[in-house]
């Protein structure tokens, strides 16, 4: 996923009201940017951090800038826009670069399932077998080399686990893919201290046959791309 137009460098002044962030551009101008991340952004919203912003295009954005990338104090580049996860994975699905997933035929986005749920992607094989794929964006890391999910309590995530189990119970393939939008982690675990219910629920889902995948990203201010699988420490 390439950024077009190119991102604009800035420094973070503060993040507030979850979806707003004061930034200072390289020319000294102070602006308010949209923060497209509903989580806690633990360790990522540190005042003074180097950031990259997208400039407003079209009429749909109320603010002139959107916050897309931050560099941590340890030098890790992190993509904070959770809305990009589906686009990044969608490009990889189209290119057939995710090992073990169907490469023949199209993946459909935003597929309804159950009551009030949509899985991020689904694929139907010629024999009618369906593969459901749900994606979770990961930004948290509190230990070197280790990514964690979630960074805040996620009732929505727990609901998706139950629906994936329901799909598996129907005889379909059900997969949960954690997309780690940072390049400094080779392992992923669950933040059970932040959301013990989700950690327990994922254990139940794995036992029920829901497949768990985790991928890291190659990212820089020019673009973000799904890179390689990382190990699970669950």
Number of domains: 2
* Tally of alpha and pi helices: 3
The fraction of residues assigned to DSSP E strands is 35-45%
Instruction: Work out the helicity level.
Output: 10-25%
Q: What's the overall geometry?
A: globular
Overview of the structural elements:
The protein has 234 residues and is α/β, with parallel strands linked by helices. It has two domains: 8-78, OB fold (Dihydrolipoamide Acetyltransferase, E2P), CATH 2.40.50; 82-232, Trna Endonuclease, Chain: A, domain 1, CATH 3.40.1350. Helix content is 16%, strand content 43%. It has three helices and 16 strands. α2 (155-169) runs parallel beside α3 (196-207). 38% of the residues are buried.
Write the layout of secondary structure elements.
Layout: E1 8-16, E2 20-25, E3 30-34, E4 50-55, E5 65-71, E6 77-79, H1 85-95, E7 108-113, E8 117-124, E9 130-138, E10 140-143, E11 145-149, H2 155-169, E12 173-180, E13 185-190, H3 196-207, E14 211-220, E15 223-229, E16 231-232
Parallel strand pairs: 3-5, 9-12, 11-13, 12-14, 13-16
Antiparallel strand pairs: 1-2, 1-4, 2-3, 4-5, 5-6, 7-8, 8-9, 10-11, 14-15
Helix pairs in contact: 2-3
Using brief descriptors, characterize the structure shown.
234 residues, alpha/beta, OB fold (Dihydrolipoamide Acetyltransferase, E2P), Trna Endonuclease, Chain: A, domain 1, six-stranded mixed β-sheet, five-stranded mixed barrel, globular
Give a quick precis of the structure:
The protein is an alpha/beta fold and 234 residues long. It is built from three helices and 16 strands. Helix 2 (155-169) runs parallel beside helix 3 (196-207).
């Amino acid at each position: 996923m390439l950024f077009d137009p190119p991102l604009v460098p800035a420094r973070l002044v503060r993040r507030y009201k979850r979806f707003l962030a004061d930034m200072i551009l390289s020319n000294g101008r102070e602006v308010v940017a949209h923060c497209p991340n509903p989580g806690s952004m633990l360790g990522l919203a540190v005042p003074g951090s180097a950031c990259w912003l997208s400039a407003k295009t079209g009429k749909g954005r109320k603010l002139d800038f959107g916050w897309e990338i931050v560099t941590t104090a340890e030098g890790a580049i992190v993509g904070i826009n959770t809305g990009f996860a589906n686009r990044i994975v969608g490009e990889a699905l189209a290119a057939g670069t995710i090992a073990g997933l169907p490469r023949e035929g199209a993946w459909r986005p935003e597929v309804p399932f159950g009551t009030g749920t949509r899985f991020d992607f689904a694929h139907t094989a010629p024999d009618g077998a369906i593969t459901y794929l749900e994606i979770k964006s990961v930004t948290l890391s509190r230990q070197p080399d280790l990514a964690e999910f979630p960074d805040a309590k996620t009732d929505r995530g727990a609901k998706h686990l139950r629906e994936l189990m329901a799909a598996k119970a129907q005889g379909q393939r059900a997969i949960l893919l954690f997309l780690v939008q940072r390049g400094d982690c080779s392992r992923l675990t669950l933040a059970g201290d932040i959301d013990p219910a989700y950690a327990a629920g994922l254990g139940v889902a794995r036992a029920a046959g829901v497949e768990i995948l985790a991928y890291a990203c190659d990212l820089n201010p020019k673009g973000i791309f799904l890179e390689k699988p990382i190990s699970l420490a669950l």
